[in-house]
Design a protein that fits this description.
The protein is of the alpha/beta class and 367 residues long. It has 6 helices and 23 strands. A 6-stranded mixed sheet has the order 14-16-19-22-23-21, with no helix packed on it. A 5-stranded mixed sheet has the order 3-5-7-10-11, with no helix packed on it. The chain has a 4-stranded mixed sheet with strand order 4-6-8-9, with no helix packed on it.
């Protein structure tokens, strides 16, 4: 039975009973192959390869593809190095000193390029025609230089720089003495295991917050948006003034409190409603000036309608019987139908509007 060979290293496996008297030579060669596979450093001269080079592992023969470490040299141009055979699994440490970028390929799968001057670790999956090359690490050229030796603690600043840390030692020391969940003077804040932070004093823009935790917890459950809360920004009301809003029952008036409406929009007044009587100087009938208005007539007068639907007012006229009074379009409610009243020296008229219709009721004369 003839010899067979290992797939990845090409090591000869002597068949039982074969190579009598010569198997020692084969064994010695196998040891040389194993030595090269495990520790061998080989220079791969690319001077005559041009754009393509094949790195071959030949069964039972010391060959370049068996080196563990590949040192590329003397390339004349960028070169693609093909690993053969494509069913051999390989692990290479590569140093590219060839002068050009070199790509490693094994099949139609992915390739890896080691740039000129760089080092890298690659492995080939040996998957046949679709084999791929993968980088375990690329550009290792600066990892072993003395400036990156972090075990040398002679210069902490250099070690920090090599780690890519931009914080100064003083900034890093802000964590020295910090306690999780508790704020320490002049130290960094570290959240507790539940995300809590205990502070003695909280300040905003230099002003200390004097509210207690219980007082702040009143806001717990508030559904106002940030925009709605920002309405409070700039509020100058005092505590007493804000407390005017502290009412017992919505919709029921209360002494020294704001007037509110209930869920139906209704307002119940505990006591009477007191209004300032408005002395009308113009001719516009407008309840916004007050629902109780007076006017002394001193000449012909033409009133105008400024009421909206649902509004009403009472108008007390003096000396109206001496002059011509012109009303806006009014539906008069009287015992004898829709007719304007005959005014005297002192009259009271109630006006109200429903939809677009203005109604008038002559209460009577006090003259």
């Amino acid at each position: 039975m003839p010899s067979t060979y290992t797939t990845n290293g090409g090591i000869e496996k002597v068949a039982t009973g074969e190579q009598s008297g010569t198997w020692g030579d084969t064994t010695n060669l196998n040891f040389d192959i194993i030595d090269r596979i495990t520790n061998g450093v080989g220079t791969i001269n690319l001077s005559s390869s041009g754009a393509a080079h094949t790195l071959t592992t030949t069964d039972g023969t010391l060959s370049d593809g068996m080196y563990r470490v590949l040192v590329l040299s003397s390339a004349s141009q960028a070169c693609t190095i093909t690993i053969a055979p494509n069913d051999a699994q390989k692990l290479y440490f590569v140093k590219n000193s060839s002068g050009y970028n070199c790509a490693f390929s094994q099949g139609s799968g992915a390739n890896v390029t080691i740039n000129n001057g760089d080092t890298g670790i690659i492995f080939c999956d040996g998957a046949g025609s679709g084999a791929a090359v993968t980088a375990v690490a690329e550009d290792l050229s600066n990892l072993l230089t003395s400036t990156n030796n972090l075990s040398d603690l002679a210069s902490a600043a250099t070690a920090i720089t090599n780690l890519g840390i931009t914080s100064t030692a003083a900034e890093l020391n802000l964590l020295d003495g910090s306690s999780a969940g508790t704020i320490a003077n002049s130290k960094g804040v570290i959240y507790g295991s539940s995300g809590e932070v205990n502070a003695t004093t909280l300040q905003i823009a230099g002003s200390s917050i004097t509210s207690t935790a219980a007082e702040l917890n009143i806001l717990d459950g508030v559904t106002a948006t940030s925009s709605e809360l920002n309405i409070l920004d700039g509020v100058t009301a005092t505590t007493a003034e804000l407390n005017y809003n502290d009412v017992t029952t919505l919709g029921t008036s209360q002494a020294s409190k704001v007037v509110t409406a209930d869920a139906n929009g209704d307002v119940k007044f505990a006591n009477g409603i007191v209004e300032t009587v408005y002395a009308l100087t113009g001719t516009a009938l407008n309840p916004n000036n007050g629902t109780v208005q007076t006017k002394t007539i001193s000449g012909a007068t033409a009133f105008t309608d400024s009421l909206s639907s649902g509004e009403s007012m009472s108008l007390h006229l003096t000396s109206a019987g001496q002059y011509t009074i012109t009303w806006p379009t009014i539906t008069w409610i009287t015992g004898s139908g829709n007719s304007a009243p005959t005014l005297t020296a002192a009259d009271t008229v109630v006006l109200f509007k429903i939809s677009s219709t203005l109604y008038g009721v002559w209460i009577g004369s006090s003259a």
